[in-house]
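Reviewer 2 asked us to include a model.

Predict the structure of this chain.
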Amino acid sequence: MNSFLNKAIPCTVIGVVSYLGYEIGDFIHLRTGHSEQVESRITQNKSRYIQEQKAIGMGQDNYFKFNFDVPLLQPNIPEDAVALYPGSGNTIYVRSLLLESKAEDRNPYPNTTFEQTIDATAHHEMIHYYMAQTCGCGGITLNGAEGSPERLSQKLIAEGVAEYLSLKLTHIKNPLTENDIPVADLSNLSSQLEQISSKLYPLGAVVVQPLLDQFGPDSMCHLYDHPPTTLELLDLRVYQDRMTTEIKSKPAKLSHPIDSPQ
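Predicted model (C-alpha cells):
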C-alpha cells in the first residue's frame, strides 16, 4: 500500500484510510475533492497550532504551508494518504475531503470530535516537518525492504513521536496503554512484527510516551537516530530502558519534561 516508501528518503509520515467499499468514482472524488470546513479550520488555526507546539517546548517555525490541491497521482504521495509531509521542503499535503470522511468516522480513535481529528492530523504532520528541520529526521532513511524489521522499527518511532504529541496536544485518549505493548516473544519474530504493524501509530505512541514525558521534545532526535534493533522489537521495554539510559547521559538540554497543554 505504501510502495513509495521503498525509496530511501529523509523521513515521511503518512495517514491512510482504506478505500475498500468505495465505488471508483467516490474513490477519486474523495482524493481530489475539497472540504471547505476542513481547509478553513486548518488555515485559520495554523498560528494556534504553532503556539501549542511551542508551549510544550518545540521551536516550531512559520515557514511551512498547507497544500490542499493534491492530485490523485501526485508523485511520492500515495493515493490513499489523508495527509503527508514528504520529508523535505516546506509543504504539508492534505486531502481535505478524504480527511473530512475520516473525521466523520472518528477513526481510529473513539470518542473524538470532528475538530479534534482535524487538529490532530495537522499537528501530526507539523511535528514531522519540525523534526525534519530540527534534526534531519534523525538520519532515518527508511532502509530495508517494506515489511522488514528495519523499516518497521524506523516507522514505529517516527510515527509514534508524531502520534503521541498530536494526541496530547488535542486531548485525544489513546486506547492503548503500556499493558498493550506485546509480551516479549523471542521465538516468533513474524508474529511479533505483525502485532506491531497492525497498530503501528497508537503502539508507537505508547512506546515513546514515557521517554518524551520524562525528557521532553529535545529527545526526539535521539529517538529518531536510535530506533529499536530487531531484538528490541521483540521486547520493546528493553528499548525503552536503553533509551532512558542513553538520554540521561546526554547534555542537560535533553532533559525538559513535557508539560500538558493548557
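The two ends are 38 Å apart (CA to CA). The mean pLDDT is 82. We have added this to the supplementary material.
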